[in-house]
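User: I'm putting together a small comparison set for a docking exercise, and I want a reference complex before I start. The sequence is below, and the ligand is protoporphyrin IX containing FE. Could you produce the 3D structure with the ligand included, as C-alpha cells?
Assistant: Of course. I'll restate your input first, then give the C-alpha cells for the complex.
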Amino acid sequence: MSIAEARDIPILRQPLMPPSPPRASPDMGLFERMAAMRKNAIATWGQRSYEEDVIKVGFLGRSTFILNTPDSIRHVLVDNYENYSRTPAAVRVLKPMLGDGVLTAEGRNWKHQRRTLAPAFTPRAVDTLVPHMVAATDATIAKLHAASTGPVDLREAMQRMTLEIAGRTMFSFGMDRHGAALRDFVMEYGTRLARPHVLDMVLPLGWPSPQDISRRFFRKRWTRFVAMLMAERRAAGKNADAPPRDLFDLMGAARDPETGAAFSDEQLGDEVATMILAGHETTATALFWALYLLALDPATQEELASEAMAGNGAAQIERLKFTRAVIDETMRLYPPVFLIARGANGPDVIAGLRVRKNDIVLVSPWLLHRHEKLWRDPNAFIPARFMQGNPPDRFAYLPFGVGARICIGAHFALVEATLALAKIVGAFRVELLEQEPVLPVGVVTTQPDRSPMFRITPR
Ligand code: HEM
C-alpha cells in the first residue's frame, strides 16, 4: 500500500495550493541543465522526476542517480552508508567555510567528531539553550512591534533572528557587535563562492578550480574572524563548577567517549563555524516559508495563533502540537535542504541498477516530499497530515536527512522553529502586501526568489 493510501486525512476545507515553480521541459539539454543547476536546481526537474522511482542520467562518463523510493534511500543512507561520501563538489564548496568540521569530515575522523559532539545536541542539552532562543525571539518581536506600522521584510527579520540565536546559543553573547560582519561573510560566500561551477564538479579534488583560489583567500579571513569570536568568549570566562551555559561550553568540554580525546583549538573553531553556518540559514528559511504559507492561509494561521496564545514559557513546546505540524508540513513543501548528494566510493547495486565508483547519488527532499506515489495531494498545504499520530515513512520525509549523517541539530532546529513561530504568530496577525507568487530557488538552501513585504498587526 502506498503512503498516500495509508494516510487518509480528513480535510475539512479546501487546502491551500501554494505556488510552485513550473516543471522543466523534458527537452532541456544536458548542458542547458548544468547551467540552470547553478541558478536554480529545482527548476531543472521535469514531471518525470516527481513520478518515477529511480532516474539515471549519464554525464562525462559518470552516472547520476536520483532516488525516489524509501527502499533505495534506506540502502544508500543507512544500510550501505559507508560506501558513500560527500561529493567532491560539495567538499570544495563547503570546506572553506566549515574546514574539517563534522559536516565535511569522512571516515574515522567523522566518527570521532560525531560521537564527541553528540552529547551537546541531546534534547537535555538543547533544553539548557532554550532561554537563549527565547531571549533572541523576544528581542525580535520587540523590534517587529516598533516596525509594525509599515511594510515588514520578514525574511530578513528571520535571518537576523536565527543568526542571533546561533550567536547566543554558541557564545552567550548577543550578535549586536559582530552580527553585521558575520552576515557579510555569509552573504559574500553565498553569492560569490558557494555556487558550484562546472569545473568544481568535474575536476578531481586535488586540482584547484579557479574558484578554489578565491575560496582559499576567503578562508584565511574567515578563520581569523572565528578565532576572534572564540577569544572574546574565552575572555568572558567560565566558572569551572558552573553548568555549561552555551554550545561553546558544551563542545569545549566534549570528550570522545572511546578515546577520551578533546578537540584541538583549530578543530573546535571548525565545529563552531559548522554549527553557526549549518544552523542559521536553514532555520531562517523554514520560518520564512512557514510565515508565507500562514499569510496565504489565514484560517490555519488563526488556529496556530490560538494554540500559541493559550500558554507561555519554555515548557510550552510540548503543547505546541499544531505549530509543530505547521513546521513539519512547511518543511515537506519547502525543505530548506533540497538536495542530499553522495559520491560512490566503490561499486554497488541500487534498485537493480549498477553503480560504479565515483557515480553520484542524489536524494532530493524537494522531489521526495512532492512525489506523486508517496503523498496524497502532494502540492497542497495540509498541516493535519502531521497531526494524525501516524508519522510519515521516515524514508519518504527527510528534511533533516536520515541515517548516520542525519542532521545533528535536528532537535535544536525543531525547538527553535516551533517556539519562534508560535511566539511571532501569537504576537502578530501576518498578511502579505503583494499578490505576486513567491517561488523557491534551489541554491544551497531553498530560498525565496525575492523577499515579499508583509503587514503585521499586533494581536
Ligand atoms: C530547519 C533547520 C535545518 C535543516 C532543514 C537541516 C537539514 C540538514 C540536512 C538535510 C543535513 C544533511 C544530512 C546528510 O547529508 O545526509 C544536515 C546536516 C547537518 N546539520 Fe542540519 N539542518 C538544520 C538545522 C541545523 C542546526 C540548527 C544545526 C546546528 C546547530 C545543524 C547542524 C548540522 C550538521 C553539523 C550536519 C552534518 C552532520 C554530519 O554530517 O554528521 N543543522 N542538516
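The chain has one domain: 3-458. The first helix runs from residue 3 to 6.
User: Thanks, that's exactly what I needed.
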